[in-house]
Amino acid sequence: MKAILLHGMSGNLDSSFGIQLKQDLKKLDFKIIEPLFTINKEITLENWFKKMDTIKQEVSSADVIICHSLGTNFIVKYLTKNNIKTNLVIAVAGGIATEKMGENFDFLEPFVPCEQECLKFSKLVNKVYNIYSNNDHIWKQKNIHLYSKLTNAQEIFIENQGHFGKSSGVKNIPQIMQIIKDYYKI
Known about the structure:
Elements: E1 2-6, H1 18-27, E2 31-33, H2 45-53, H3 56-60, E3 64-68, H4 70-82, E4 86-92, H5 115-124, E5 125-132, H6 141-151, E6 154-157, H7 174-184
Parallel strand pairs: 1-2, 1-3, 3-4, 4-5, 5-6
C-alpha cells in the first residue's frame, strides 16, 4: 500500500505529527512518499505543481493521501487539474478562506480552491475526512466547516489541538491510523 504525505506552508510534518505517523504507516507496510515543497514566502502554486508532477504516477496509484493545512487546499487543486481519482484523502486542519487572510498571506490566494474545484474533487475521491479542532489559530471554524461541506468530508473533531502544527505541540493523531484501518479493514 502507498501513502502520500503533504505538508503545509511551514514545511515537513516531522515537526508535528509526521514522525509517529510514518512509524505507524511502516508497521502496516505502507510505502511513504513525502514531497518537500517550497515553504513560507518562497511558496508558489506553480512550484508546488512542478514538485508534485515529479511523483504524479505515485499520486495516481496512492491508497491514501494525508495532507495538512495548505496541503489540504493544494490536493483539491492538484487532483482536479489532473483528473486523478483516489480512494482516501485525510485532511488535517483543512479550511477554505472566504475572505482575505491578511497581507502576510496574500501570496497563498492561488491555493484557495473554488466551489467548482471542490465539487469535482468530491467526485474524484471515494472518501474524504477533515480532522479539526476547536482552537485552530489559522482557520476560523466557518472556514473549516466550509472545507468539509464543499469537499464532502466527514469531520473528525479533536478538542484543543490547535492547527495540529509545530506550535500546537501535536506529535500524534491516532485517528488518522484508525481511519485507514477502518477504511481498508486492516
